[in-house]
Give the backbone structure.
Amino acid sequence: MINNTKNYISRELEAKIKPFLSRKEVLAIVGARQVGKTTFLQHLFDGLQKTRKKSAFLTFEKEKDLALFENIEDFKDYYDGYDVILIDEFHYAKDGGKKLKYLFDTTKTKFIVSGSSSLELTFSTGKYLVGRMVKFTLNPFSFREFLLAKDEKLAELLNLKFKDILEKFNLKMAFGEELNLRLEKYLEEYILFGGYPAVVLSKTQNEKKKVIESILENYLLRDIKALLNLKTQTELLKMATFLASQIGNLLNYRELANVSGFSYKTVLEHLAVLEQTFTLNLLKPFYRNRRTELVKTPKVFFTDTGFRNYLLSDFKPLEQRNDAGSLVENFVFSQIARRELKTNFWRTKSKAEVDFVLEKNSEIIPIEVKYSKIASPGKSFFSFVEKFSPKQGYFLSRGLPNVKRIKQTEIFFAPLYYL
């Protein structure tokens, strides 16, 4: 639900983190800048304020909060008796992991911290807190969170009828034409401009573009440049722009090195940092036979399609684009990735391909994605079904919902926005 007094939009992470709030482990919430970590922590704090737990909310962007933590004994004495302490921007603390371990071992206080880079927070802090810290990632708004901000009633209906189509898909619950049209319109806005909260809440397209520009240039590129110790971000921008043009495609490392001017080794280092700063993801192939299937070369997807479109200076409607298929494939990946299921793609050396293969409860689930309204997923998908005999598979497109069976495999046909 939306809390109108504080403009808070419920995040899916709330349900995942709830069971851990009563446990002793340190909770680390990581994610790119501007995805709403401070707002999320504040929401957790507001909830704690309604209980009998004595809690405090700090941010290490404030010099006084950070200065007190620098003298860990003073910090410990000052907050003696507190049940929960939430610390935003924890990565600003020097030797933060070591000090947090000391507090964990010597007090009964529960700590919840946030940081903008998994490199800074997980590596430098986590190495001291092995077995003592649980990490959660806060992403830009999912499509359902986006929909909650745009049309609360429609979001409620979608969650009521299709809470998770990978768990349960009931054809009889399908929406009629008008609601489908509304959902498709919202889906297009989400794919074009992405899910960063400040972008979603902006009113006009020009405002959305300026906000994306600000987040990209003032936060993301600056952070990555600092992490990589780059003198300029020119080569990094070239590399990111090339990657933006390659979403859904096999990554060509040699071509990427040529375009950016980086060595092969440097390209790998930059890709690792782009992943660890929540800019993009490299999806590895699924295989059972090394002789006939790809085993190494990944595909690239952006965490947020709004960033991707900004890098290419292209916000045209999907109907006017040559890359609409790649964008909806990126959309599906970004929604699936939040489910924390093992996800790959399948491609044979003869170029038969299935967009995504999920592994869930020891079962494999193929998913094919198309932007068009065509009714069939194509030969490659059926080839996968024939070869591996999965219990179920999905074909996501703009077409109407349906269910078909091929031998023992049940194939669910669903509109993209039901995901």
